[in-house]
Specification:
2 copies of one chain form a homodimer. The longest helix of chain A has 17 residues. In chain A, about 45% of the residues lie in helices and about 15% in strands. Chain A is of the alpha/beta class and about 350 residues long. Chain A has 3 domains: about 60 residues, 434 Repressor (Amino-terminal Domain); about 130 residues, Response regulator (Rossmann fold, 3-Layer(aba) Sandwich), CATH 3.40.50; about 130 residues, Response regulator (Rossmann fold), CATH 3.40.50.2300. Chain A contains 13 helices and 12 strands. The relative contact order of chain A is 0.12. The interface between A and B is large, with 61 and 61 residues. Chain B binds a DNA duplex (30 and 30 nucleotides) through helix 2 and helix 4.
Chain lengths: ~350, ~350
DNA sequence: ATCACTCGTTGCAACGTTGCAATAAATGCG
DNA sequence: CGCATTTATTGCAACGTTGCAACGAGTGAT
């Protein structure tokens, strides 16, 4: 018949080992909460002796500021959000991107939350959700469109973000992008060098701004070198599929088969190359092929194919650095970078 | 000389459009904060009329509970953490996993944070960090080892988690795993059916529990069918590489070349198959090949190769469902599932 | 009319943090 | 020595939420 003690059940959280808070340090040092808080944030008005005392105590109890407390008080979430749309991606794109971001936030307070979405429409809603609920301090978006609605939304709200890819908007915003123009120039030049007179470009998604950059550059470069150029958009075809392979097979038989080919996707390139081979087309004799590459797979299967590397890991690192600087208040104009393509000529 | 107004500068956050809080609803309905809070969480003791009034008001102002407030008060983060180790992964594994998790947390309060780590040692530290700082309500780990230290750590702390992969621990914990034994049985049976007498298994990582399951099953199945079996661990070789291709090439020339081959990685399989072809080995005549598959690439390059599919997306969904049930207090014993392999025989 | 009880609602304190105004102690100056 | 100024520290309130004890009003029994 023992009644439960009157002061039982006070703990809301599991008290397993009780986290250290400012209060812990306060009691330990005999200083007030405010002083401790101030001190840990480097308060300049404090005595050196005090600061050391606080720091020692904090270290000894392994103090780490409570994210919920900070967030509630300051509104700062210490979170950056990566918004993935579900569209056609390069091999292991997400993986490299995420590890790049992870590398860049290592040693900072920041956490990464990933919001996976299935299409770009939904991804606008995701961004809106983040803005309205202030659920992150900054956002990284990928596969940016020329007049991307997510970019517009975040600019309207003056919310820190960085896009992987550029836009057409007049107002500047932070971005990091693969230098698609340099890639295209490099590719065309290489093909011309090898004697090509008729270059075809295959591209997977004509809704990104990237598309326009590449196509425009191709046309100019081809004109400059006096060679023919064509573009084929393969948006509707699954990158790795029998259909894609058949596309290569059909190409092999065409009377107007190009003698130079540029492809912006490793996956689609592999499929097409298989198809071309099926049709008896021989690489480096009947056709020259150049492909953008994000993994080692293409080079393992077709070691002879020239590739141009896009380092998605490095892009993740750079995007994050830009974003953090943006969050710290740097103006957008100074936060725009390109990554130069790295050519791997095989022959 | 106008002094700034005495009550200026009160807002800590940007007041852009001011988020709705319980207070907003309270003022709107004339009810107290407590009542509003209670009502929104379905308080059974309230008048039906009140609840509807609150709900209407909440809807009209688009109320969403503040995560920081809830977290501070209750300790509940509404976050699940995915701990990725950086080891050898199947193609687009991260991507499919993340999208599966995204699918399963859709419509819930939960957010996903991803903690990318470069090796398994670091990933133990990551888990420790999550536990000590209560930075998530539950954890998903992948590439689980037989006596995985992360699992041990979380069991010791009685912290909700689920592992992709099983362990040898006696105490039960939630997991979801590919049914590697069924995969192996299926593969051996198929090869034997095709007339193979000498089966080789190539596997990439002998530190996961998965490894032991597969090897044990292989040996038993081979013995049962009266065929020879061998295992080769390819841990040190990069999955897509000239080296891996060379491995296939060398295999082609070996006097003791097997007539049946099982591979647990699509990437390595592609490389090896290229090497075998280089050596003049013909598929389905000189050797029969079976591979575990997580994307479409292998089938596009080698349409004739039998594959067995592991659906990583579905695994992400299932892992998340199990974890959420675990967080809600279900016992571990009831939260253990396997996913059955799906065979794609091509001939 | 008083009591005990239920029903529906409310006030208060606390979670961990930080900005600000206020304090106390030490110093400088006339 | 008194007053103003600087230096070092502190108390208080607030961010948004929830658990709990307490409240007043109504009901029914005594």
């Amino acid at each position: 018949m023992t009644k439960s003690k009157p002061d039982a059940g006070r703990n809301i959280r599991q008290p397993r080992g009780k986290r250290a808070t400012l209060k812990t340090i306060s009691e330990l040092t005999g200083l007030s909460l405010s002083t401790v808080s101030l001190s840990l944030r480097g308060g300049a008005s404090l005595k050196e002796e005090t600061r050391q005392k606080v720091e020692a105590a904090a270290r000894s109890v392994g103090y780490v500021p409570d994210r919920a407390g900070v967030r509630l008080r300051t509104g700062k979430t210490n979170v950056i959000a990566l918004v993935l749309d579900g569209s056609d991606e390069a091999i292991d794109f997400s993986r490299h991107m995420i590890r790049g971001i992870g590398e860049a936030i290592g040693g900072t307070r920041y956490h990464l939350t990933v919001m996976p979405e299935f299409d770009r429409v939904a991804s606008v809603e995701t961004v809106r959700y983040i803005l309205e609920n202030r659920t992150a301090d900054g956002v990284i978006i990928t596969h940016t469109g020329a007049r991307d609605r997510r970019v517009q939304l975040m600019m309207d709200h003056d919310f820190p973000f960085v896009s992987h890819g550029r836009t057409e908007f007049f107002t500047p915003h932070p971005f990091h992008d693969f230098h698609a123009e340099a890639f295209t120039e490099l590719a065309v030049e290489r093909l011309v060098e090898k004697g090509c007179r008729d270059v075809m470009l295959a591209i997977g998604d004509d809704t990104t701004n990237n598309y326009h950059n590449i196509v425009r550059t191709l046309e100019r470069a081809a004109a400059r070198h006096g060679v023919k150029s064509r573009v084929v958009v393969q948006k509707a075809i699954r990158p790795a599929s029998a259909e894609m392979r058949q596309f290569g097979r059909d190409l092999a038989d065409r009377a107007d088969r190009p003698d130079g080919f540029i492809c912006d996707s490793e996956t689609r390139a592999i499929s097409m190359l298989c198809g071309l081979q099926d049709g008896g087309v021989m690489l480096e004799r009947d056709i020259h092929f150049i492909c953008k590459q994000t993994s080692d797979i293409l080079s393992t299967v077709f070691p002879g194919v020239d590739t141009i590397e896009e380092d998605v890991y490095a892009a993740g690192v750079e995007l994050t650095r830009l974003l953090l600087r943006r969050i710290d208040g740097e103006p957008a104009e100074t936060l725009q970078t390109l990554s130069e393509p790295v050519a791997h000529w095989r022959s």
